[in-house]
Design a protein that fits this description.
By secondary structure, this protein is an alpha/beta fold. It folds into three domains: 164 residues, 3-Layer(bba) Sandwich (FAD/NAD(P)-binding domain); 110 residues, 3-Layer(bba) Sandwich (FAD/NAD(P)-binding domain), CATH 3.50.50.60; 107 residues, FAD/NAD-linked reductase, C-terminal dimerisation domain (Enolase-like, domain 1), CATH 3.30.390. The protein is 31% helix and 24% strand. It is built from 14 helices and 21 strands. The strands form five sheets. Strands 1, 2, 3, 4, 5, 6 and 16 form a seven-stranded mixed β-sheet that branches. A hairpin with a 2-residue loop joins strand 4 and strand 5. It is globular, with a radius of gyration of 23 Å. The structure holds flavin-adenine dinucleotide. Flavin-adenine dinucleotide binds next to helix 1, strand 2, helix 2, helix 3 and helix 9.
């Protein structure tokens, strides 16, 4: 029986990557640790993010490749289709076991796993599931949730959680917002037969990625039935027969069976009653020092999407968590700079980038020269019959040191990590050209990109 009123070395809020990493490291050091989760154990990446979406992406990509290669030896390929309902069952074979496995592994490590909605009641105590837990340290690793949208009918918005659980794909979808999650879901939905429209308020979507490659991706998406509308500010969502109508600020409107949230995510801090712990949020964010410690209460640390310090990505959650664990166990040391972060939008084909974009280089006053081009005629891309592929590399003039790499194409999401390593090592074009890669692979195109 757990103590009703127990004292811990560490209480962790959230069973995702960040929370579990810190909990395990502190437990290994002999700390008494409890971990609280208010939904299924497992976190976003494993249950509602990276992993399940990549299952769908893999299947949609396999079907599309077979279709494209139908004239070149994949007999019957043209008749194949992406069966969303079957793929959903396959996805569940990955996600369904996670909550029990995550819980069991925590308990096997000697971490007390508690289900419930925690709320602070004092600077060193919180209440959860009818219990009061006192602790020397707390970690807020509650992740993120879709950014609130205050327009009429916003409650009708489905989220990426809903999308990844759709038993069948609706015949038409509208995304309000053109972030990476909207693009990824849109590409899957279109392959599953839906007519898709992305409604973006800004003039450009995917603003952190190279705009020329984004334009190519958007143009390619259009050939697949994915329309992008920019400069559209949603004003209201109205239910109507067969679905919903999204009304824009200038009176134009679009109709679809489902309307989805594509506006990005914000730290999930609702209901924690942080004021009882002496913490005041700043514009919805935890005020953090260089140790990821919460200003106002030095017992509390944060990591991952809840901290919101680095990009909201799983490897950053791990990076933060390791830094916090080190601070907890060895004394406070500042969160190390994360360095270049390769990231990918898992569209079909994927878009990826690392290091400076042209806009960021200009803003930083960094001179650059470009190596850029179409990759559709590269052998490795032609073999996959992929018509949409391109690259752009930024080099420092004179030294030819790599400053940034941006890729669109079938293997972009894998190759980008090599460029991330090159950036981290300060490599120049000559060193990259001299790198011996396995051949013939997507990576062996790197020297051709640098000609
Ligand atoms: C659709 C989608 C696709 C993504 N794809 C990628 C990708 O391809 N690559 C990538 O690197 N990243 C991706 N991400 C982002 C990635 O999932 C997150 O950056 C990562 O999961 C963050 O880990 P975390 O531990 O900070 O938070 P989470 O994994 O979100 O874990 C937080 C946990 O806290 C729980 N929680 C929330 N509130 C409370 C509370 N009050 N009390 C107790 N528990 C609470 C949540 O239920 C959750 O289990 C994706 C995200 C989404 C939504």
């Amino acid at each position: 029986m757990p103590d009703r009123d127990a004292t811990y070395d560490l209480v962790v809020l959230g069973s995702g990557t960040a929370g579990v990493t810190v909990a395990q490291r502190c437990r290994e050091a002999g700390w008494r640790v409890a971990l609280i989760e208010n939904r299924d154990f497992g976190g976003t990446c494993a249950l509602r993010g990276c992993e399940p979406k990549k299952v769908f992406w893999t299947i949609a990509g396999a079907v599309e490749r077979a279709q494209r290669l139908a004239p070149h030896g994949v007999a019957g390929g043209a008749a194949l289709r992406f069966d969303w309902a079957a793929a959903q069952r396959f996805k569940q074979s990955f996600t369904d076991p996670v909550p029990a496995q995550r819980r069991e592994s925590l308990e096997a490590a000697g971490i007390e796993a508690i289900e419930g909605q925690p709320r602070f009641v004092a600077p060193d105590a919180l209440e959860v599931a009818g219990r009061r837990l006192v602790a020397r340290r707390f970690l807020i690793a509650t992740g993120a949730h879709p950014a609130p949208l205050s327009i009429e009918g916003a409650a009708q918005l489905a989220t990426s959680d809903d999308f990844l659980d759709f038993p069948e794909m609706p015949d038409s979808l509208l995304f309000i917002g053109g972030g990476f999650i909207a693009f990824e879901c849109a590409h899957l939905a279109a392959r599953a037969g839906a007519k898709v429209r992305i409604l973006e308020a800004a003039e450009r979507p995917l603003e952190k990625f190279d705009p020329d490659l984004v334009d190519r991706l958007v143009a390619h998406g259009r050939t697949l039935g994915i329309e992008l509308v920019t400069g559209f500010k949603a004003k209201a969502i109205h239910p109507e027969a067969g679905g919903f109508r999204v009304e824009g600020a200038t009176g134009d409107s679009f109709q679809a069976a489902r309307v989805l949230h594509g506006l990005g995510r914000v730290p999930a801090l609702d209901g924690l009653q942080l004021e009882a712990a002496g913490v005041t949020l700043e514009k919805g964010h935890l005020p953090l020092d260089e140790f990821l410690r919460v200003r106002g209460n030095e017992r509390i640390f944060a990591a991952g999407d809840a901290a919101g310090v680095g990009p909201a990505l799983t490897p950053i959650a791990t990076h933060d968590a390791k830094a916090v664990a080190r601070s907890l166990l060895e004394g406070c040391t500042p969160r190390p700079e994360q360095g270049p972060v390769p990231s990918a939008v898992f569209t079909l084909p994927p878009l990826a980038g690392v290091g400076l974009t042209e806009a960021a280089a200009r803003e930083a006053g960094q001179a650059y020269e470009l190596r850029q081009g179409d990759m559709a005629e590269f052998q490795s891309v032609r073999r996959m019959a992929e018509p949409c592929a391109a690259y752009k590399l930024l080099l420092e003039p004179g030294s030819e040191r790599l400053l940034g790499a941006h890729l669109l194409g079938p293997e972009a999401a894998d190759i980008i990590s090599l460029f991330g390593l090159a950036l981290r090592q300060g490599m120049d074009a000559a060193a990259l050209r001299a790198m011996i890669t396995a051949y013939p692979t997507g990576a062996s195109n790197i020297s051709a990109m640098l000609k």
